[in-house]
Amino acid sequence: MAFSNIMDSNSYQGGQQDDPLIAARGRMLGPAYRLFYERPVHLVRGQGTLLYDAEGRDYLDAYNNVASVGHCHPHVVDAVTRQLGMLNTHTRYLHEGIVDYSRRLLASMPDEIDQVMYACTGSEVNDLALRVAQTYTGATGIIITSDAYHGNTAAVTAISPSIGGAAAVGAHVRTVAPDLAGVPAAIADLQESGLGVSTLIVDTIFSSDGIYPDPSVLEPAVTAVRAAGGVFIADEVQPGFGRTGEAMWGFERHGVVPDLVTMGKPMANGLPVAAMAARSQVLDEFARGIPYFNTFGGNPVSMAAAAAVLDVIEDEKLVANALEVGTALRAELARLAGTREDIREVRGAGLYVGVEVDGRDTARRLVNAMRERRVLISVCGAHGNVLKIRPPMVFSLADVDRFCTEFEAVLAQL
Amino acid sequence: MAFSNIMDSNSYQGGQQDDPLIAARGRMLGPAYRLFYERPVHLVRGQGTLLYDAEGRDYLDAYNNVASVGHCHPHVVDAVTRQLGMLNTHTRYLHEGIVDYSRRLLASMPDEIDQVMYACTGSEVNDLALRVAQTYTGATGIIITSDAYHGNTAAVTAISPSIGGAAAVGAHVRTVAPDLAGVPAAIADLQESGLGVSTLIVDTIFSSDGIYPDPSVLEPAVTAVRAAGGVFIADEVQPGFGRTGEAMWGFERHGVVPDLVTMGKPMANGLPVAAMAARSQVLDEFARGIPYFNTFGGNPVSMAAAAAVLDVIEDEKLVANALEVGTALRAELARLAGTREDIREVRGAGLYVGVEVDGRDTARRLVNAMRERRVLISVCGAHGNVLKIRPPMVFSLADVDRFCTEFEAVLAQL
Fold first, then answer.
1. Residue A251 lies in a domain
2. Is residue B365 part of a domain?
3. Mean pLDDT (chain A, rounded)
4. Cα angle: A361, vertex A366, A367; to 5 degrees
5. Which pLDDT score, from 0 to 100, does residue A289 have?
6. Per the database entry, which stretches of residues form a coiled coil (chains A, B) (predicted)?
7. Which residues does chain A have within 8 Å of residue B44's beta carbon, measured at their own beta carbons?
8. What is the pLDDT of residues A350-378, one digit of tens each?
9. Which of A36, A123, A166 sits opposite B124 (nearest CB)?
């Protein structure tokens, strides 16, 4: 069992029951709630790439992709405040917000992807995308990577082996390694079982599998899935919105045009906003046959927040920043790793960086040691041995310096 | 097929393709998106119980329960703005917001309900509650009402017959009329089938079934379900937070203490915030065994918005207002109905009011005629013949006057 994404090597029950806040949390929220770090952090304020605790100490945030344009970005705060004081209803009334945003979002994608539907979370849009794929293909079989995470509803928990625990992968699901070499065999197995192939769904940077940027693996897999009648869902919840540096969407690095694209986390810098973009011919039968309404999805405030995030990405050239700063970060990390045998590989794309170390314990010690030096990261991967470095996209070269200074100090004490 | 909640008699494809906004919507959002009213409304501003269109005309909102404490309530706007400019992270870091709010929320419920988990939508928490119920009981069978609506994920679509269209009720689901008289037979059927009884889940005012306030039907059904090893989930997404006037929660009117309680829509006056409260012994096995993390659920901004809504409900005594104003509204509607044969019944609790008329066409004409007089309502019920009157809880006696003046005029022309 992986526990890589959810109950990862970096999440804790919160043992310090003498802390009244931790004790109250445990009592009222129950055992499902976990905290990061052996010594949890108690944050009260954020600004850009920095987070501050109750004692005023600053932490360098090298983990949070939700606050993608920076914590508390004033342009987003202003846009939300303004719309929240003006109107917040739903999509059964006409409003420009959803139309204007949809136009901008679809313009950032290949022409083939021409429609979009809105929800609140990545879980909701992945759940929806599976239903669309199954309706379009008439098949139910699904191919995923072996340590995928696609969300927390019943349907997407069944395609999220990284959750671990008592959660089980569905009988209609086949898993393949993140090099996707196993896709043809998975197709054959699904066809023989009578389930058929509805979809291959992957996170286009293979986040919870351990961050694998190789752009050569996806195209042949998608071609094989399509030949078997299936569609390709690009889960851009983590890599999307420019994080991988080379393009706005992770799938673009792979030279593939998906059938369905799901997105969420950084979409509105912390407000619950998610979307599924689609080729209209793939969406059509589902959208005509099965009524779908999402109370908060695409509401005026959600759209104002999402539009403000696009503004900042454009105005502050954050995709180019992710490429430049991410490249510098990986180069410096590779230099620090040098010939150390306990650091196996530094990899990634843009500001999604993985550092594979020699085991779960090493990763855990590094993450907690970095936290003690006030730098926030986490782990991922099937064996919990990949440092997950995924900062806000406003991460600067100065932030790289701070990160690497602390990382060097931590390595020296390992 | 019911179409009562989703593709109800009051939702339209938006035929006026000569309106560029409607045409752009249709092209980019696809056929799943519907608009209210034969002549859709284009709203730009809201305040209290009023909504305004682009030409500055005001509409009396007698439909929207999301903006429960009134459109654009300044206390909620201020709370969100302040927290959004301060910090917005997630539950893996310590924060007072979620602990303080949980304490207040649980204090509003019976002592037996002692834990709470957060998500973003009613769909997410109903999906979660089903999984908790199935884990706790080891059974999979579910009993619902015949025109229930519990959300839009794959798992809750299967318990939402009111969606209609090509969406199908699951093979593990049994439906009963909203008088719940069929529960013993449904239990027997699930037991014979080997599925067992995991849960009875009902909206405690039977919203999409047609609004049935009778407080005598639920207790015997819950007793029978518990005797069969099942649990009771109170879906408070619509009736919760004081709307029914007699208490904070719909289940209190029925004298029943649920095992799980789900809530959403009005919880944060328009921000996507939802929760599942639970008896800890029912939640325990699930919460220990199956990791669950919701990226935005319970974040500092969500909790600030939800806390501000509780403040307003308390400060403005909105539960008492719902009782007083709702009672006055029903009395006046009953007077207007008089001995008319086309109006069969006026019913409800607090500010959740249903007016049953003699058929779908009458309901449709009334809803559209009210819209032309700038009063917004909709329909529900298995036959689409119940007017759904569910205004923000700040609805005043003056609003009742305006509503009834227009309703009288509309009835006169029917």
1. yes
2. yes
3. 96
4. 100
5. 96
6. none
7. 86-87, 95
8. 999 999 999 999 999 999 999 999 999 99
9. A123
- Do B274 and B328 reside in the same domain of the chain? no
Q: In terms of domains, do A149 and A275 share one? A: yes
pLDDT digits (tens, 9 = 90+) for A252-286: 999 999 999 999 999 999 999 999 999 999 999 99
Nearest-CA distance from B389 to chain A in Å?
16
ipTM of the complex: 0.97
CA distance B73 to A216: 52
Tell me the two tokens of residue B376. 């917004």
Which residues on neighbouring strands pair with residue A283, listed in sequence order?
none
Q: Which domain holds residue B364?
A: 11-69+317-413
Query: Same domain, yes or no, for A98 and A52?
Result: no
Is the same domain home to B216 and B105? yes
Could you say which of A80, A88, A122 has the minimum Cβ distance to residue B84? A80
Cβ burial A113-138 (10 Å sphere, 16+ → b, else e): bbbbbbbbbbbbbbbbbbbbbbbbbe
Q: In sequence order, what are the residues at sequence separation of 6 or more whose Cβ sits closer than 8 angstroms to the Cβ of residue A218?
A: A180, A202, A204, A251, A254, A256
Q: Which of A315, A342, A368 is the last residue of a domain?
A: A315
Q: Which residues in chain B have their CB less than 8 angstroms from residue A51's CB?
A: 87, 89
Return the residue in A11, A33, A378 with the most chain B beta carbons within 10 A, the one to mutate for interface testing: A33
> Digits of tens for pLDDT over chain B (414 positions)?
344 444 455 777 665 668 999 999 999 999 999 999 999 999 999 999 999 999 999 999 999 999 999 999 999 999 999 999 999 999 999 999 999 999 999 999 999 999 999 999 999 999 999 999 999 999 999 999 999 999 999 999 999 999 999 888 999 999 999 999 999 999 999 999 999 999 999 999 999 999 999 999 999 999 999 999 999 999 999 999 999 999 999 999 999 999 999 999 999 999 999 999 999 999 999 999 999 999 999 999 999 999 999 999 999 999 999 999 999 999 999 999 998 999 999 999 999 999 999 999 999 999 999 999 999 999 999 999 999 999 999 999 999 999 999 999 999 998
pTM over 0.90? The answer is: yes
Closest residue in B to A46 (Cα) is: B87
CA distance B355 to chain A (A): 22
Q: CB B154 to CB A152 under 8 A?
A: no
Q: Nearest Cα to B243, choosing from B265, B258, B225?
A: B265
Residue B30 lies in a domain: yes
Say if the Cβ atoms of B81 and A86 lie within 8 Å: no
Give the CATH number for residue B403.
3.90.1150.10
DSSP structure string for B200-245:
EEEETT-TTTT----TTSHHHHHHHHHHTT-EEEEE-TTTTTTTTS
Is residue A57 located within the same domain as residue A122?
no
Does residue B114 sit in the same domain as residue B237? Answer: yes
Residues A206 and A98 in one domain: yes
B25, B92, B99: residue with CB nearest A35: B92
Same domain, B305 and B190: yes
Looking at the complex, report in whole angstroms how far the Cα of residue B5 sits from the nearest Cα belonging to chain A.
Answer: 9
**Between chains, do B86 and A44 touch, taking CB under 8 Å as contact?**
yes
Spatial contact of A287 and B26, defined as CB atoms under 8 Å apart = no
| Contact by Cβ (8 Å): A199, A190 | no
Domain count, chain B: 2
